[in-house]
Amino acid sequence: MSGLLLPLIAIVTGMLAAASVVIKKSPDAANLIEKIKPYEAGIGAAALVLGLLRVFSATTAFKGGLIWGLAFTSCSVSCIIMGFLLGYPVIQNLLLDELSDEAKAKSGEIYTRLTPYKVTSGLVAMGTGAYLLVIGFIF
User: Which keywords appear in this protein's UniProt record, sorted alphabetically (predicted)?
Assistant: First the structure.
């Protein structure tokens, strides 16, 4: 079961991160995305923690082969990126309230610079998550 958690959370966070692209390709997905949108920050935090935990075990993933190891590592890294981007508003509200206005402005600038990577990382996560899920069931 724990082997399925990373691919599943990668697919869900990928759908949230790349919602505009997913809805264009599959209008039926809009309803599902709207249902999970309120939980975006919590899902992002879970993806961040899980991605960080799994990226440290990436070297053992290469024992399953080069393609499996690359897919596992890509999935873990994209979960970290999306987890940070999706969970940033919560982090900002909880942690940054105590910082100076200059620090808040700087963190907002960093978030703005990273935002264009949200869709790309979401697409990578959905692809690698689907691959890991399918291969995990086959083997």
Answer: Membrane, Transmembrane, Transmembrane helix
